[in-house]
Design brief:
Layout: H1 4-7, H2 16-27, H3 35-47, H4 52-62, H5 68-75, H6 85-88, H7 91-98, H8 102-110, E1 120-121, H9 122-131, H10 146-166, E2 171-175, E3 181-185, H11 188-197, E4 202-206, H12 207-211, E5 231-236, H13 244-247, E6 254-259, E7 278-280, E8 301-303, E9 325-329, E10 349-353, E11 370-372
Parallel strand pairs: 4-5, 5-6, 6-7, 7-8, 8-9, 9-10, 10-11
Antiparallel strand pairs: 1-3, 2-3
Amino acid sequence: MMGAEERMIRLEVLTKEVCWSIFSKIAFFNREQNSQLVRIGRELVHKCQGLPLAAKTLGSLMRLKRHVHQWNYILNSALWNIEDVQVNVFVPFMLSYHDLPPLEKVCLLYCCVFPKDHVIDRDELITMWLSQDFFSPSKNLEQQDLSCIEQWFELQAKDCFENLAARSFFQDFKKDNDGRIEKCKMHDLIHDFLQYLTAKEYFMVDTYSNNQGREGTVSTTVNQANEKARHATLLLESDSQIPESVNMKRHLRTLFITSSDGSTFLRLNLENFKLVRTLHLSGARIVEIPKEIKELIHLRYLCISDNYHLKELPEQVCDLYNLMTLRIYRCPEFQTWPKQMSKLKNLRYLYVKGCDKIKAPAGLAIWDIKIFH
């Protein structure tokens, strides 16, 4: 096919010994190299096809396995027999994915909403998970007050993030002074793998790549997406608006919109997205938030960061009773809070940074809210 050579992704391939070095340092961290496990480990490394990320992911998985029968179970998995070339590359990730608890699987799959090479803020990801109601209280917490339950959810989410990071699903960590991860990225192969698993409930529209004559990887186009798709990512170039075909997806729970070009402004039409819980508009080139936002009665997370011409939030935002998280970073012209912010009884996380013209909003129950300025 003409042009296929230019679009082909060439993966870096390592020697078996280099792959073994990557695998063994992780798999045998803080323990001796048992001869039986070494033999099985070398067979696993052979199946990595020289891919460093595969060796790293398998090493992270096997570090949790202490017994020979557990290692043999992974080595003899039927997944290694998949003949589809594209899917076969994903087998090491699939083995690690299937080993996750159900909650961590759900949280990992949700990460496909971030564009490739996106710098993921840990707190941002955690509050997005919380907005989707992925977490449920244990039986002994059901009788506790709401604040205790919310703290439990947050602890669950933090543990989930740390476990996924330990499994090598994230990389390029930026840590704080205490060694805790603040930001990270996902490898493109992991991103492709997650899109492969979520093809029926997630889709991406990339007008920038289309205009550049490039094809996507395994991301599902909007026309192929299931009618009841739950999550959507829109990467919009200048002069492009939300496609009408996206407006027809009325079951969306997440709408993640960003732009590759800040020269024109996006006009939002939110009337068709009344089930959205997570609305991410960072860098979406918006000048104003439409008053129709009050129709998003299920909205729990709103990010309007990096919109340099945005000056205010409409009063209708105060009708979003379920709103838990509001992020406003790097909006230098933002200067006016709605007057009835006190109506946001469920607001728990308020992130404000790089908005020099604004002060803390009046009327909020500050002791109930975590404000990050």
